[in-house]
Amino acid sequence: MMKSFYNFVVLLFFSLLIMSCEGFFLSDIDDCGVPDGDNSTCLDECGIPNGSGIEIGKCDCNGNILGCDGVCGSKKVFDICGVCDGIAEFDYNCGCDNLNQVKDCLGECGGSAVIDDCGVCNGDSTICKGCMIQGADNFSAIFTISDSASCYIDFSSIEPILNNNCIGCHGSSGGVNLESYSNTVNSFLVSKSDSSRSLLYQVISKQSGYYMPPSGSLSADEIRKIALWIQFGAKEIN
Ligand code: HEC
Hints:
There is one protein chain. This protein has 5 helices and 2 strands. Among the domains are: 40-77, no CATH class; 155-231, no CATH class. A two-stranded antiparallel ribbon has the order 1-2. By secondary structure, it is an all-alpha fold. Helix 2 packs across helix 5 (220-231). Bound molecules: heme C (HEC). The site of heme C (HEC) has 20 residues, from helix 4. Heme C binds next to helix 4.
């Protein structure tokens, strides 16, 4: 009986010793340099010990950025016209008094005219399905755009239109010069294979601030020819 009580006391003693040692070894220095601390004295605003807080350019601890509406993480951005969460895609869409509207390709605020598959504003997607026949001055629907090798539209179809309607004002005297192929086909005026992005096409189809020629208008056929020529790569010679 005495012996087992003694054993019990010894056991208790060692148990207490081990427990207190454990406590001693655990009293570590925390991330903030505080002995036995709980990392709480050096938390940044995101709750990270010694962290650098919200990243520069971000608006919260989750890495979100400030939306144009002033709401963090709203993902709202300015459109090309500077309207927050606006829907304008091109600069010619800008300038409507009602900020919820954009200009359509005819320049009407809130209008519904769009550029068709052939790059023609308010078109019916048919012109690029056809092509110029060599030597002829009209379109033929027999060719499709995949037949571009057999498609004969080059600067020789376009030059007379420019000569008759444009170079009176846009010759070599400065500014926009439409006097030859090399003057006409430059990155300011022509985006090859994309008439809707080509200023040359935009000005003749009311998609730009300028509408050319200033008085009158090219005929629908002339506008189509220029659109088609650009769509087919604005070639000088076939
Ligand atoms: C009666 C004169 C006149 C005629 C004809 C004319 N333009 Fe213009 N055009 C101007 C003036 C003026 C400007 C504005 C100043 C400038 O950029 O040279 C202009 C500007 C332009 C611009 C630049 C637009 C911009 O946003 O900077 C293009 C491209 C253009 N014209 C193309 C044409 C084409 C193509 C034709 C023929 C279909 C044509 N113009 C016929 C007078 C004319």
